[in-house]
Design goal:
Shape: globular
Radius of gyration: 31 Å
Number of strands: 10
Strand content: 5-15%
Structural class: alpha/beta
Strand order of the largest sheet: 1-2-3-4-5-6-7-10
Largest sheet: 8 strands, parallel, barrel
Order of helices and strands: HHEHEHEHEHEHHEHEEEHEH
Distance between the termini: 86 Å
């Protein structure tokens, strides 16, 4: 104990040691303790900084590695023949069934779609009420639209696009856990088919991965649509870009966003069509977004049965907000990503297409990119 020894040395000076010497010894001991306390504090700060840096790297390195992988995924050339299979679709706004559109609009739509691969129109006809019911007043011009489309675009099918906000992340919304609500949705689907629609297309969000009530609903809905020789289709969440990512993200944000690949497959096996909402991806660059779409295409192809139509969403809208950067999420990048994913995973897949979101936000550049990249 060096500091104690110093004090002891003062005592060893013998009986002749003065009070002044004792004071000097005490002062010397106090002065020696001060640097030791400062040193410990500096060491603690250094350790804290190193720990914080390690945590940041622990979070950033996997993200950086994943982004590099997406950029690499965007390289290469798509295989020949990875173009439209005439299985494409487009989401149309509510104006088509509420009286705002006319015969002239249908004629313009027919000219727009001529020569493309679009054969399904998802026409917004809801939303569902939170209890699963659907007022007929929501789609007063449905019969007119269906008849007009069938005349102007033979072979094109008109599906009712139905959806609602789910009460999965807030108290307000539709609750799939209630059996009465699911029964009401089934009744609403019968109602839609009786109105003449060729199918029912559901978009329920936010829908968490593993939701068994949703699978039960799809089983019941498919019985109804099959009996009516109609289609059942759904808009699907993206698939985990990394295994279990939806669980990690859900823990951090209370918004899991993604589905596991296994759950995506469970949904795909219960429907006639499944359209991946492959936009709002949080990617900052075209190359990263395109690589992400290529990855999503491959992941979806791996678990979607051949009997189910798989469609990848194209962003026909332009916004800048959290999760979506308009300059990055472009139609050319998405189309190239789709073709790359298709080329690498199942280039000859017949029941495959793209779905365009959404008609009222689309620009001429979007339509040109779709035709040039996917149709020609």
């Amino acid at each position: 104990m060096g500091r104690a020894g110093g004090t002891g040395t003062g005592r060893d000076e013998g009986p002749g040691a003065t009070e002044e010497n004792a004071d000097k010894t005490v002062a010397g001991t106090a002065g020696a303790d001060a640097p030791s306390s400062t040193g410990r504090r500096r060491k603690w700060i250094r350790r804290t900084r190193r720990t914080a840096l390690a945590l940041v790297l622990l979070l950033l390195l996997p993200t950086l590695a994943a982004e590099i992988a997406l950029r690499v995924n965007y390289t290469g050339d798509p295989a020949d023949g990875t173009r439209t299979r005439n299985q494409d679709a487009i989401w149309l706004g509510h104006a088509w069934v509420d009286g705002r559109k006319s015969d002239a609009d249908v004629a313009a739509l027919a000219r727009r779609l001529k020569g493309t691969g679009i054969r399904d129109l998802y026409v917004h006809s809801g939303p569902l009420e939170h209890d699963g019911t659907l007022p007929e007043s929501d789609y007063p011009r449905a019969a007119w639209l269906i008849d007009a489309v069938h005349r102007a675009l033979p072979g094109v099918r008109v599906q009712a696009w139905l959806g609602d906000k789910l009460a999965t992340e807030s108290p307000d919304g539709l609750r799939l856990g209630r059996a009465a609500t699911r029964t009401a949705i089934v009744a609403s689907t019968r109602q839609i088919l009786a109105a003449g629609f060729d199918g029912a297309h559901f978009d329920l969000e936010p829908l968490h991965s593993g939701d068994r009530d949703y699978l039960d609903l799809l089983d019941r809905l498919h019985e109804v649509t099959r009996a009516d020789h109609a289609l059942l289709s759904v808009a699907a969440h993206q698939i985990d870009p990394l295994p279990g990512f939806h669980s990690v993200w859900g823990t951090l944000t209370n918004h899991p966003k993604w589905w596991s690949q296994a759950y995506f497959g469970q949904v795909a096996r219960r429907v006639d069509q499944i359209a991946v909402m492959s936009y709002d991806t949080m990617q900052p660059l075209k190359s990263l977004y395109g690589g992400y779409v290529a990855q999503q295409t491959s992941l979806a192809l791996e678990v979607t049965p051949d009997s189910t139509d798989l469609l990848m969403g194209l962003p026909f809208f332009h916004e800048n907000r959290f999760g979506h950067r308009g300059a990055a999420e472009t139609v050319p990048a998405a189309v190239r990503g789709v073709r790359l994913g298709l080329s690498r995973t199942d280039a000859d897949r017949a029941n495959f297409g793209v779905a365009l979101y959404v008609d009222f936000a689309a620009t001429e550049a979007d339509w040109t990119a779709y035709r040039a990249g996917w149709v020609r």
